[in-house]
Design goal:
Layout: H1 2-25, H2 31-54, H3 58-89
Length: 103
């Protein structure tokens, strides 16, 4: 039973790191939103992993499995968010304007 706990903690840790990596690839967030969001996300992951490590209840194992699956389903949607916003707003496209006058 102890090995299952460590496997679930490892799975949640790897998916959490992958989620943070995906969020860090998004270039449209300014630092005043990005840094607090990353700090809060990391603190939440640390708290959940600590709870799973200390608890022997089945609830902690179910929570770990649900969070891992939710993150794995959420990450592809978040990674497509940058492409969608760049299509809508023209983010990252360089435009040049040439003014031609005729005398």
């Amino acid at each position: 039973m102890k090995q299952l706990k460590y496997i679930l903690i490892a799975a949640l840790s790897f998916t959490g790191i992958y989620f943070i990596y995906t969020i860090s690839k998004l270039t449209f967030l300014p630092n005043k939103y990005y840094l607090p969001m990353m700090a809060i996300t990391i603190l939440i992951f640390i708290g959940i992993i600590y709870y799973i490590y200390k608890s022997d209840h089945i609830f902690s194992k179910i929570l770990s499995i649900l969070l891992t699956v939710a993150i794995l389903l959420l990450v592809p949607k978040v990674s497509k968010l940058s492409d969608t916003l760049s299509d809508i707003t023209g983010l990252g496209k360089e435009t040049n304007t040439v003014l031609v006058t005729r005398l």
